[in-house]
Each structure stands twice: as structure tokens, then as C-alpha cells.
Amino acid sequence: MKRVLLLFAVLTITNILNKSVIAQTTPWPDWVFKHWVWEDASTQQSAMQLLDDYKVHNIPVGVINIDSRWDVGYGTFQVDTALFPNVQAMIDSIHARNIKVIFWTTSAIDTDVHELWHYADSMGYFMKTSAGSGSAIIHWWKGDGSMIDFFNPAAVTWWKALMDKVLDLGIDGWKCDGTDYSILLANATYSPGMGAAVTRLQYSHAYYHLFYDYTRQRLGNDRAIMSRPIDNYGYTFITDPNLVSFTPREIGFACWVGDQDGTFDGMKKALNNMYQSNANNYLAFGSDIGGYRTDNAYPVNGRSKELFVRWAQLGAFSPLMENGGGGEHRPWMFDQQTNDIYNKFARMHHAMVPYLMHQGDSLFAATQSLMQFFNSTDYSFMLGSDIFVVPMLNSSNSITIDFPAGDWTYLFNNAQVYSGSANSLNIPLSEFPVFIKSGSPLLATLDSVINSVTGVENINAQNNTVTLYPNPATEQVHISGLEFNAGEEYEFHLFDVLGRDLQKTYLNGEKANVSIAEFENGVYYYTIENSALSTPKKISGKVVIQK
Fold it and tell me: What is the spatial distance between Cα 333 and Cα 116, in angstroms, rounded to a whole number?
């Protein structure tokens, strides 16, 4: 009887040691397509605890957002040491876990930051309502403040010096929140620097470009910002991009579609923003899993289990998978089933990073989105060329699906292949309407996660008797703990993300050595399948090749 060892390989732009191993060839780094987490209000202790808890529950994390409020006053860029007593040590520790760190920010300085605000006011660094008015004071959701005039070179130079206090910590980017819209609501559209009024969209583009461009200038092109693409604030009938678009398309690589309620209606409003973001050709976007705002009908967690799971599944099959906001967003705090489902979908999302990078490269060049919607009724969409997704828009498990042309394999049961219209399906909570184009090698990649025991974590971490070492490796890897009966052997296959069979080796004996000398640096994911068992057991993990 033959046992089969399958190693499904996926090369990434950066390795897990947070060091570049392959030159970045896209305007965005690969980490924007990983799993993002955050809290609505955090401290150094709570942020580290959040990451510890995700690790304990074996859920991969690629990015953490340190959201409001982390500074001593809005617009100061001065870390509050009462909340973050050693922020540099925190960032270094997070980076050592191969996780990126971004900080929340806006375009405002609040009036209660007296010395800073009065200085900027005296220098003419704020937007006004007219040439003859004083600095416009605008009420926004964090208080009363004034908006920086990004068209005034002196104001920009001064603002950059404030930003430097955080950039010097080595962060990976910013979450730029939507204070830019306030200039329109308060009619504060006059720029002293320009000597003229500007449009709200001009102001937004100047704001986002400054944070994006200056951060990359200071720290390198592997930095990014998280910002809105399209956000109609729930007014779905408003589609004019002059009113509802925010980030310049050319830097929109990690966009989220704003704040929604933690309800199925909130999910549909998020999807409408995503639909409009696709119509305006933003490359990559997603939404707050479970919604940012809470649902009062669920006072414990702030949202129903069904809503959270269905939104998490949608998030996993969006370019940006990010989870945070008001109320409870930690999957293990719902129940074990929720945690298990979330675990698997987060690991599938990480397994798709090379696919999203590859697809995104060509789609960005063609000014198209990774998510391409068919309509704004059921919000079915393509994720790249090989994945068809139909969101679950209510708590029912029943859904009727119209398929695109061709044959589509159901991800969670490969024996089910669909085509045509009006297909009625029942989708249990543990699954999601995801279909893979017939013949796509991506099916094997995702199957390896669905059928795995340990997902993308190293097999050594799960106390398995089978171990692969060294890891990282250079010339060869050793696999120990394989049990052989007479006449049995393991068959080793190595595939790339496009499904090309790179290597085939037969293994036998108590220890198996596999040469990897010919392969490039990168992260490879693998599964070990023991088909000799009556109930085959699969183990998966990853090995880094670093020469």
C-alpha cells in the first residue's frame, strides 16, 4: 500500500522572517493580502494579548492595526505612554512574530491639544471656510478640531515632522480614517496654501497621498495605507464618485469600505460599497468582519454568531480580510464551532496570497478590481479569474445561484460540479458558496487547507511524530517519524501555485531526505497524507527556503 506525501508549494514575496527574499515586483507588498486584526480601543497589553490569543487558537495573523486612541491627543503623533509604556519594544516584538503593524490616524488636530492647535492656527496651516475667515473648527466623531491644509507646503513639511515621531518606530503603514469628508460637511474647502477653494475629492487625494508617499519615502516601498475606496455611508443610491470615493485608485491596495452595523443589512451595505468600489476600478478592498457597530439585539457579543461567521467567510474571500470594531470580534468568544470555522477560512485566505498577488498584478495593469461583481442583488462576484463566490445575505442556509459560463467545482465537496442558472443549494454554516473554475490548480491549494490538521502552522508546533527540519532550510530538508511497512513508500510531489509539478521523489526508510537546492527562496506549504489508515490523516505545515 502506498502512502502519499504531497507538498503544495506557494512562493511569496517575503519570507516569514520579515526579510525580503524576492524583489517586490508590484506596487503593493504581499502582506496587504494577509489576515488583519484590531481592537476598537487598545493598549500595549491588550494588543499583545490579542495576538497571543490568535496564536493560541492557531489562527494566522499578518497585520495588526493599533486603532484610536494611542496618542496623547488627536493630531499630536505622540504615543501615550500610559497606554503604551514601551511602544518600540511592542513593535519589535510584533515584527519578530512576522506580523506587520499599522497605526490609526486622521487629517485633524483637535482644539484641546492647545499648544499644537494654536501654533498651527497662527501659522495658517488649517483649512478655512473662506479667505477672510479664521481656521475652520469642525465637529467630528472624536471631538472638535481643524483640518490640515495639505496644499500648503509649509504645513506639509511641519506635518511630516510630526509623522516622523511614529515613522521612526518602524511601523508598516497607517489606517487613514475619513476626517477628510468633514471639510465638505463644514464647508471648510478654502485652502490658504492654494489661495482658493478645493473640492472635497482633491483634499481627500492630497491627504491619502501624503501618508502613502511620505511613509514609503521614509521606510521603503513595502509600506501601505488602509483607507476607504468607496463609502456611501449606507446611502446606496449615491453613486457619484465625486461624492463617495476617497482614496486615489493608484494607491488603493488595502481598502476597507467604512463602518457598518453588525447585522445582515449592514453586511449588504458593505457589499454595496464593495460593488461600487469595483465599478470604480479599485484593486483591493474588504470590510470589517461582523460590522464595526454593534447590534443591540445581541448585548453579549454585539452581533449574532451566524452573522459573524457568514461575514468572516466573506472576508476570507475578499482581498482584504480584516476583523475588528465595536463589541466582540474574537471568534473563540462565540463558541468552539465559530472558532474552528474562522480558523479554517483564515488559513485559506493566507493560502491564497500568491494567487491574489498574481491575479492582482495583471488586473491592476488593466485598471480592474480583484473582486468583480455580477450584480447588486445577490452580490455574486469573481475573485480573480478562478473563484466564484456568492455571499450568504441572511441567516438561512438556503440559496439559489446562477453560475457564470463553464463548470464550477464546489470547494467543500469536489464531487459537486455546477453550471447554469437557478441552482438551489443548502450551505451549512461551516461552508460557504465558493466555487473553483474547472481545471484550476487553486482547488488543490485550498483543498490542502480544508483537509489539513494544522494548516499553515509548522507541523512541529502540533506535537506530531512527523517532523521536517531544518526550517528554514537551504539545500535539503529531513523528514523523520514516517512509519514504513514492508513494500510501502511515500511519494513526494512539489507544485507551484500555477499547478506545475516541480518535483517527484519516492521516499522510504526511517528518515527521508529531500533536496530543495534547485528551488528559489520562499514559503512552501505542504500536507502529509497517510492513505494506509482506514481514516486517512492529513498533516500540513510550511517550510521556508532561505539561502
Answer: 41
Q: Does residue 454 register a pLDDT over 60?
A: no
Nearest by Cα to 263 from 344, 327, 338, 337: 327
Grid coordinates belonging to 9? 508549494
Q: How would residue 487 be classed by pLDDT, with cut points 50, 70 and 90? A: low
Measured between alpha carbons, how far is 522 from 21 in angstroms, rounded to an integer? Answer: 7
Query: End-to-end alpha-carbon separation of the chain, Å?
Result: 36
Sign of CA dihedral 467, 470, 473, 476: negative
pLDDT at residue 441 tops 90: yes
Sorted by sequence, the CB contacts under 8 Å of residue 93 that are 6+ apart come out as 48
Q: Return the ∠ at Cα 15 (arms to 12 and 19), rounded to 5°.
A: 125
Q: Which of 224, 202, 200, 201 is nearest to 211 (CA)?
A: 224
Q: Which three cell numbers stand for residue 136?
A: 475652520
CA distances from 256 to 37, 145, 286 (A): 13, 24, 5
What's phi and psi for 294, nearest 5 deg? -90, 160
Q: Return the top range by mean pLDDT from 4-8, 229-233, 462-466.
A: 229-233
Cell reading at 279:
465599478
307-348 pLDDT, tens digit per residue, is 999 999 999 999 999 999 999 999 999 999 999 999 999 999
**Range scoring the smallest mean pLDDT among 203-217, 336-350, 501-515:** 501-515
The DSSP secondary-structure symbol of 251 reads G
Sign of the dihedral through C-alpha 148, 153, 155, 157: positive
Distance of CA 528 to the CA centre of its chain: 28
Distances (CA, A) of 483 to 235, 477, 489, 508, 512: 62, 17, 9, 9, 11
Residue with cell 518602524: 170
pTM over 0.90: no
**Distance, CA of 39 to CA of 497 (rounded, Å):** 33
Three-class secondary structure of residue 545 per DSSP: strand
